[in-house]
Amino acid sequence: MFGRLVAKGKAGIKIMKYNFKEIEAKWQKTWQEQKLYKTPDYPKKDKYYVLVMFPYPSGDIHMGHFRNYIIGDAIARYQKMLGKDVLHPFGWDAFGLPAERAAIQRGLHPAEWTLKNIGISRSTLQKTEISYDWSREIISCNPDYYKWTQWMFLRLFEHGLAYRKKGWVNWCPEDKTVLANEQVVNGACERCHTPVVKKEQEQWYFKITDYADRLADDLDKLKDWPENVKTIQREWIGRSAGAEIDFIIKETGEKLPIFTTRPDTIFGVTYMAIAPESPLLDRLNIEGDFKQRAEAYKQQVLMRSEIDRASTVGEKDGVFTGKYAINPFNGKEIQLWVADYVLAGYGTGAVMAVPAHDSRDFLFAKKYNLPIEVVIQPDKNTKLNLATMEDAYTEYGIMVNSGEFNELVGEDAIMKVTQFAEQKGIGRKKINYKLRDWLISRQRYWGAPIPIIHCPQCGLVAVPDKDIPVILPNVQNFLPKGRSPLADVPEYMNVNCPKCGSTAQRDPDTMDTFVCSSWYYLRYVDPHNDNIPFDKDKASAWLPIDKYIGGISHATGHLMYFRFFYKFLRDIGWLKDDEPALSLFNLGMVMDANGELMSKSAGNVVSPIDLLERRGIDITRLSMFFTAPADRQISWSNDYIVGVEKFITNRFYPIIEFYRGTNPDLKKYFRQMNLDKYEKDIYIKLNQTIKRVNDDYNYMQFNTAISSLMELVRDYESPKISNNDLNDYLILKSILLIAPMAPHLAEEMWQKCGRKDSVFDGNWPDYDKNALQFDLVNIAVQINGKVRGEIQAVRDISEAEVLEKARSEPKVAEYLKGKEIIKKIYVANKLINIVIK
RNA sequence: GCGAAAGUGGCGGAAUUUGGUAGACGCGCUGGACUUAGGAUCCAGUCCUUCGCCGGGUGGGGGUUCAAAUCCCCCCUUUCGCACCA
After folding, report:
1. Gap from A827 CA to B71 C1', Å
2. The CATH number of A646-769 is which of 1.10.357.10, 1.10.730.10, 1.20.1070.10, 1.20.1600.10?
3. Fewer C-beta neighbours within 10 Å, C or N terminus of chain A?
């Protein structure tokens, strides 16, 4: 109906073409002049902090970035329309290895390459008119930013949370640097996929394990985080409760504590095993042939890559050390082995082996013919038979062959055994974590220098706050050599100790880029402060982040680190609450038409610019929103534009043709007024749409927001509305509803309707709560649960009347003929189910 | 292997929060109208089966219920996470 009116250009109505180029240019200019996106230092009204994870500038931005940013943008604009002060900043995670690779390959300095990419990306991004306050832009490789990254390091250092430790680390032979656990994926370097090898080195760590309990416990406070992210973090922290029990090395009497979650199996220990990398091994003084074999075994294990080790899970091997240990519970002597399946970094690097009740120990014992002793029975009537057992019995059960502990069961047994150990001083309760301390030093150039000086007299000395930033010196050669390129710059390395003045050396390493990204969201509240990293009052006014948008790939890395930093800064008085982000939203990735992830390395990057120029920013945005829910992965194809483009150019934009110039009061409700049937219906539809679209913005369901707007416009037939106020009211509210997703379009329509303010000026529409329901309802009639008919009735009709009406439906009557009604279920205004026999 | 999430038309996806008329909205497709023509626009149709009624249908099988896409159990598939954590 409506469409025809437009197509035929009814007399007197001038058809307006949707000229996006003109419209978009016009509003971009106006908004820039108005400084529409300028955020105040302190929010004067309710605040909303929406943040999208800052990108690494590897080239130009692509469709994937574009999708991310328009999602944040729609939320920012929606919140602004709700009348809040919105902080929506942007910046660049600018340190990192690809810049060094580019330096090596193309002879560009990493800074040059990075800043050039930032320039290109920024210019693309600014063309997309995302509502960033660009005056707050940060670039993490600039000294005015990394000065404060170094400041963070110094605070951690003075609180004993940044420390050096020698240990077995993950080493990437390609990038020639160490990696954090979080950067090793399936035994390979996250970035270059080279198999990682173990090296023993002294490195810098942040003591994130001190925060393990809080990081785990506070996950419960994150009500609006996706469950899967919380699960991944919980498992990564890997808290497990058990006991530490002191075995004794027979020869020396030295204590050999081990961690176990199953103290109830203590009487079934038939051997012990030590990790090959464990320093314990050297202290054992293994002799003769045993020494040779143990050494050879250790070397062989160290040669194997992580991938190799992972692929042979299930195949266990090891060698006997010739040494014995004593079980403190029963005084039994047991063999001490070195075994690959024991991890040096977990617990104490040694285990008590209970083959009957642990699958790994079972395999190992079978392989080397070590004794197996059953000390747990599943229940009173079931007995484990050693001869026929094919695997260990690892469930809880009843203790047997365990002296005075016999007949104790499950958790109670564990508790009693642990208590006994505590009383005798041979053990204690213990909680262990899979989480390791965060290794943050890198032997590479393009990162924030570690602000520490190694003094032969004073040891590790912090660079005084007044001397930061420690500026990254200029270097010519970036080829990785296994040590930091900074080590070869004597002007940089040689300094005087700030404490004693004697000749000393700087720490040559740089920090992991994840350190930079652990606090960037704080700098945005006060990006130009030269004296402190951020103003405490500004931070407490804006934080926590209300909506944090990013990819799920950061679940165990960044999203753990930034929570750790936030808690630490709170502890030292810089912040007020526990968690940096109240709500986390996982974005769906954008794949190309073949289902491949768009990335620079895959070479299938599609720039949004071409599309934006041909179809317009708003049409492109709406198309992406409409294609799928924001958290779902999509394979982008320009075909997705067709429907939305038709909707906007043929349906939505032309509704302003029907505007009658009444400039209605948008706070007014029409429900109680004299409206005819059609007017009433469309008014109800409008209010249902307002409610739905509003909910959809809150649930990040932009696709259904657009479809309900399509429905509204489909049902809207201006000539049928005689109330001019209502007609204009509907048009203006529709414009507001689409504004967060299609800003230029909405602002243009708004202005064409004679409005002088901006759509974004706190104009979000409320719905008329009394106008969500039609007076007439359709009630489904079911016979035995199957829909057999439908009746129309006035709202809130009685059950008896519904039944009466249903019976008079011919089709329903047919079914009821000669049958007995056993039961009726009536769901008010919706459905009646008649059960017959 | 362990853990988590998810399987709905030819396609993207609604409805799952609260069990209550499955397939909203859009693409594509089919037919028609207007046109010299149209990949423009409009109208009608489009889960399967059927001329129509009837019947069937949300990965497969079972169950709970007056009523199941939605809740429970088993199986299959896909995706993601963890990969010897004692």
Report:
1. 19
2. 1.10.730.10
3. C
SS3 assignment for A588-636: CCEECCCCCECCCCCCCCCCHHHHHHHHCHHHHHHHHHHHCCCCCCEEC
Gap between the Cα atoms of A831 and A790, Å rounded: 9
**CATH assignment of A776-836?**
3.10.20.590
**CA to C1' distance (Å), from A787 to B19:** 16
Burial class (CB in 10 A: 0-12, 13-18, 19+), A812: buried
| pLDDT in the model for residue A601 | 64
CA atoms within 13 A on the CB side of A699: 11
pLDDT at A599: 65
CA torsion sign for A793, A794, A800, A804 is: negative
- As for the ipTM of the complex, it is 0.93
DSSP assignments along A138-156, one per residue: EETTSHHHHHHHHHHHHHH
For residue A226, give both structure tokens. 């996706």
Residue A334 host element (H or E): strand A333-339
Q: Matching CATH topology for A240-432 and A776-836?
A: no
pLDDT tens, position by position, A276-330: 888 888 888 888 899 899 888 888 887 776 667 766 677 788 999 999 999 999 9
A647 vs A281: which has the higher pLDDT: A647
CATH number of A240-432: 3.90.740.10
**A616-641 tens-digit pLDDT:** 999 999 999 999 999 888 888 888 89
Residue whose Cα is closest to the C1' of B68: A785
Measure, in angstroms, how far nucleotide B42 C1' is from residue A634 CA. 32
The residue extents of the domains of chain A are 149-207+439-515, 240-432, 646-769, 776-836
DSSP run (H or E) holding A321? strand A318-326
